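Deliverable D5.2: sample structural annotation.
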Amino acid sequence: MTVAIDLERMLRRLHLPTVRRLYSELECRAEKEGMSYRDYLEILIAEEVAHRAQTRIERSVRRARFPFLATIEDFDFTFQTSIRQQLLGSYLGPELVSEARSVVFLGPSGTGKTHLAISIAYRAIQNGCEALFVDADHLLQKLSRAGEVGSLRDVLPQYVEPDVLVIDEVGYLSHRPDAANVLFQVVNERYLKRRPMVFTTNKPPASWGRVLHDSDLAEAILDRVLERGRLIELRGPSYRRRHIPGRADEPQRGEAEGAPPPPAKEEGRKRRDGQPFGRRAGFAQPEPVRISGKRRSEFLEPTALRRETDVTREYQSDSSSKRPVSSAPFASLSKKRQRPR
């Protein structure tokens, strides 16, 4: 007598959701292809293992609290040329955790520090480890508040237990006065347990004392981080502004973004020697000040001295040709220059 077996229920009890979903479909394929029992079972178990690995990675990524998911394959090393992928080889393998190798990424905004930090933590998750991403200001505020109420020891395990801890943007914001005290608690605990840390910052190590408000503790923190780690400096323009022509960091002084170019200066008439009217060669004339946008006259107004000089030149040229010239201009000028008695 054959006893009916509820295969669905047993697979559910063994927590084999992929086998329970695929076994019926694969059974029809095995009959058509003449698949052996071993091959049939091997395919089912391989699918179950692959599904479990993917599920574990997705679950670990959610627990890591990444602001975005980034991989080392997505990083543009042709844009950020101050670092090579070969330099990160030891941080992308299992030795990151087994040898407790920490790293500090230093550089201005937009140079890829956070992308590389998340890529390292994500690769550690793919290698079977757990990771946690936290903003430096959020971490320090949470630990400081816990210290004020006497629960610091209860909060520390949250940042000590993960295999890889990423602390992002150290020094970007003004930290609390006890920042060095609470950060040292985390760094020292992880150092003693040989667990790696990844930092990103825009401040050089010499400035960490001012950022954390305690030079001695800042030096102790860096000493523990860099004993089995290294400092990697990133340089170059911001990747976020790569779409701007020339990748300029900021507009020129006095020019607003999108403002039209200034109008070209109009050139007035010039004399035969190439100099503009009213200017003597060899003497720089100051540019007249324009008020309320009013444009000055393009041609200079004649003055009494200029009229007299022009008439004198005309008289001299006409004297050589024996042509009579009217003396009316000289008479009018002499009358104007006479002073009343």
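Annotation notes: The first strand starts at residue 103 and ends at 106. Confidence is low (pLDDT under 50) at residues 248-259, 289-294.
The annotation will be released with the project's public dataset once the embargo ends.
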